[in-house]
Write a structure and sequence with these properties.
It is built from three helices and no strands. Helices cover about 70% and strands about 0% of the residues. By secondary structure, the protein is mainly α. It has a domain of about 60 residues. The protein is extended.
């Protein structure tokens, strides 16, 4: 007898076939059990700092990726100013002129 869904080619068995909520419940139970038995690794602040540093070095070594991040940030930053920039500048200049007169 086959345990596969007709036409889908996937098994009805196993962790991956469960709905996401049930997977979370099982994973959570496993995490709690590991911590309770003392088998779960807990990072010290130094270990966490070093891991973050290694990840940052790995990402920043990819110049193309970093350039894309910078472009995206610039577009977001300048995009906010672009729509109101002319009006905001003229408003500030108008205030200066009024104060200076």
């Amino acid at each position: 007898m086959s345990s596969k869904n007709p036409g889908s080619g996937t098994s009805k068995r196993g962790f991956a076939s469960m709905d996401e909520e049930r997977q979370r419940e099982i994973a959570s139970e496993g995490g709690r059990a590991a911590h309770a038995s003392g088998h779960a690794h807990q990072f010290t602040s130094e270990e966490a700092r070093r891991a973050g540093q290694k990840g940052g070095e790995a990402v920043s070594s990819n110049r193309e990726h970093m350039a894309a991040i910078g472009r995206k940030g610039g577009e977001a930053s300048h995009g906010r100013r672009g729509g109101e920039g002319v009006q905001a500048r003229s408003g500030r200049e108008g205030q200066k002129n009024e104060e200076g007169d």
